[in-house]
Predict the 3D structure of the following.
Amino acid sequence: MLRGKKILLIISGGIAAYKSLELIRLFKKSGANIRCVITNGGTNFVTPLSVSALTEEEVYTDLWSLKDETEMGHIRLSREADLIVIAPASANLLAQMTHGLAEDLASTTLLASNRPIMVCPAMNPMMWQHDATQENLKTLKSRGIKIIGPTTGDMACGETGKGRMSEAEDIFTAVMNYFSANKPLAGFRAIVTSGPTYEPIDPVRFIGNKSSGKQGHAIASALSHAGASVTLISGSVKIPDPDGVKTVHVETAQDMLEACESALPADIAVCAAAVSDWRVDSYTTQKIKKGASKKPPSLSLIENPDILKTISNHKTKRPTLVIGFAAETENLDDNATAKLESKNCDWIIGNNIIENNVFGSDKNQITLFTTTTKKEFPISEKTIIARDIVDEIIHYLEANKLTQAAE
Ligand code: C5P
């Protein structure tokens, strides 16, 4: 099943474009979200109206359309997909991709993309055999682009040979196989903290932090999609538990720490929770009455355990990669780098909460700080930010040749 998977389908010019309609139907039936870009040539073979009716989404055709750019924009189109499928891929589009041309919405989107790409070529056999096409394909393959087909048979142009686009069912199977095989974090264990902690004052009142849990939950979900076995330790939030993730519900910072410690060992820990720094040192079992004394009650606070710091300094079960968050209202760089040191974690993900109004929003803007590097990411949906973070985790583990150690 492709439930929840985001696929961007690019339809370029070719008679085989009619098969793309069947492909969309198969994608939709298996629960995928499909967005389509049709090239100018493609619109000669299928209409945006039929594609839009099948995808139940807006169809994008024009790089210079104010409407398309304000609603979506080629950068978002290129970044939001889990996979880009080009079917049919014309000889022209393959050549544009090889040489980095950005002449229309499809080629510009492809050049702006860091997402995996699958191409399904369709062209006349002579065009397919041409050295230019074959060399372009070699280059595209060397960049990790997957090529599906073409097959051999009778062509619409009357010739027979290799160049027919693979059948919709075969492309669909290749996409299914891609998603089931692409689990780079399989075997790795991860702990994610998310949401706020609530520290009770009396049975009805509490001290809490502002946090919707959207970013932490999205990270747990993205880690799980990449194959990791994930324990999400969540404070009180209004959003559902992510699918495929073991979720432990907690209320206070102390509960959250205990749940983290019982979830160890893990290879990766992401502390995205907004943990209350303090709790009241004497919880009152009865509701504190207003006006019981002349003055409002005074609360005496004590410090909560620092979960991130505790995990980072764990003597026997420190995860290989420990990631903290820094939600700051000012001096993001200084505060984030200071936090890296004081917490002894490996990465800090900083966000400026005033500038970006992140609480409860579906969007976020982050900067990733390691001890030696700083990388800024564009403002994006929290689900996209989560996938960017997981991509960074995968690259880090691969670059350092780290294999799962947690047992
Ligand atoms: O300490 P501060 O709130 O500035 O740091 C934020 C980071 O530390 C976040 O990753 C947060 O989840 C984590 N944290 C924690 N336990 C605390 C306070 C913060 O895990 N008691």
Observations:
- The mean pLDDT is 92.
- Residues 6-181 form a domain with the Rossmann fold fold (CATH 3.40.50.1950).
- Residues 193, 253, 271-273, 275, 277, 304, 306-308, 324-326, 339 surround cytidine-5'-monophosphate (CB under 6 Å).
